[in-house]
Amino acid sequence: MSTMEIAVLGAGAMGSMFGGRLAEAGHSVTLIDINQPHLEAIRANGLCVETDGNTRAIKNIAAMRPGATDKTPELLLVFTKSMHTRAALSGIEHLLGETTAVLTLQNGLGNVEAIRDFVPLANVLIGVTTWPADLVGPGSVSSHGEGNIRMMSADGERTSKVSAVAEALNSAGLNCQVDDNVWAAIWEKVAFNAALNSICAVTGTTVDQLGLLDDSKSLALTVAAEVVSVANASGVSADLNTCSTNIVHAIEQHRGHKPSMLQDVLAGRKTEIEGINGAVVDVARTLNVSVPHTETLAKLVRLIDARNASAVAK
Ligand code: NAD
Question: What is the pLDDT of residue 314?
Fold first, then answer.
């Protein structure tokens, strides 16, 4: 296997987990972040990764602030929250070479548009992942269970770059499939997140608690149906049955799970609402599709974001 020069922009839960696993597979990995205690802990003790009872410290990994590295990577993996993508890329623009591939597996819509401001479309790769990750504390991440990645170039071309990136991800056991239908996968994940994340963020319930009332379960399914109707109107063949099955499965199985949007609300951090429900509403408007439930949830989460921001400002 040939090894790759990889930089991870946004080395929180997902970026650290992916970066750690790629470093373990022998790739040269630089984590780039602005979370100073996290960077210092990694430099002092290595990156601590816990996966299903297997805890190890990964030492062959660099951890830097954006301005502190000048190594141009073959692959830049973007794992900031979606609303930070543009600011983060502007901090590492000097690293982007003519052939650097930039892969986003972030949630939401609008990630390609943000990345395109910095690199040509031919270098942008997009996808979704079902791998979960949590930041346990500075220098330490955990991930449980199996996941996968569905990925493709943003312009739909199956280039050698796409194969090389998929091979690198697979060398780290990350189960990457190159998928011509990647936009359907992205919209199906947006539908899942628009439904569960926003309802849990507004109500403070865990995912399984949405099963306490028929009304809340049916609200989640209604939001998913709205999002899928927007995807279909825009020419993407997202499948409502797939989304509904995933939502019902999550409500039945994800006991005690707080979606990231609820975790952000509870921690007083800004949520990804604009990249998820907000972005769906924007696309729906251009296509004249009605998404009243998705829009109401966007407005409510926006209000929570504003409340949290005003509390910080005081
Ligand atoms: P996170 O908040 O743990 O990590 C984001 C990191 O980006 C933070 O460490 C932050 O310091 C860093 N960052 C912010 N601004 C930056 C800047 N200007 N320069 C460099 N770094 C910067 O988020 P996460 O949970 O890892 O999620 C990342 C993305 O992946 C999100 O879009 C999320 O929705 C998606 N996602 C998360 C999971 C999960 O289980 N956590 C699963 C699938 C997809």
Answer: 67
